[in-house]
Amino acid sequence: MRLRNKPWAEDFIKTHSTIALPDPESYKGNWKSVFNNDNPLHIEVGTGKGQFITGMAMANPHINYIGIELYGSVLVSAIENVLEAGTPANLKLLNVDGSKLKEFFEKGDVDRVYLNFSDPWPKTRHAKRRLTHANFLRLYEDVLVDQGEIHFKTDNRGLFEFSLVSMSQYGMMLKDVSLDLHAEMPEDNIMTEYEEKFSAKGQPIYRLEAQYKA
Ligand code: SAM
Question: Which UniProt keywords apply (predicted)?
């Protein structure tokens, strides 16, 4: 993701505090109060400009969604996407670091984690930064319901291979693996910005669903 410095991003985020929640710690264990319902909660770590999470929220009004993005300058575009979509009530954004999930969620708060086109960190010495490294899998497990799931898409073959090994060594059950998602093109697939970009160049999109064991 190319970052453009947007000095006004912080103010923009503050003025949209009903979409990008300013104090996520205060909802830990109590996210139902944010959405005023008991519906499942799905989160996306590294939501980027928010095309996927906004599309999912519009397509699935009985699921609550939270998009998590580290950079304020990127989250601005996600907020704009949410506004354009008419501000779905089942969607919130957080401008926080996904490695700190436990500050915002307690065990069982989250029903599913989405990871889409996560930064590949190709150098071996950076393996721990990959969002499918065992340390992150432990983190997601600590906030997910029992037998919760991770749904992961990427164009990056190296990261995909690493993730398959990482998840199976962690003891997760791989439920669905595709080496060319767009050849199958399931009707309910919502494309991310990166997915549109890479698939337009003819690159295969890899996808998996993995579930934590009981
Ligand atoms: N998911 C989007 C897509 O598929 O189009 C964006 C993909 S982009 C390559 C990865 C995004 O993850 C970037 O916006 C980056 O800022 C964000 N990101 C990386 N590490 C993160 C972290 N620890 N917490 C939250 N967001 C993170």
Answer: Methyltransferase, S-adenosyl-L-methionine, Transferase, tRNA processing
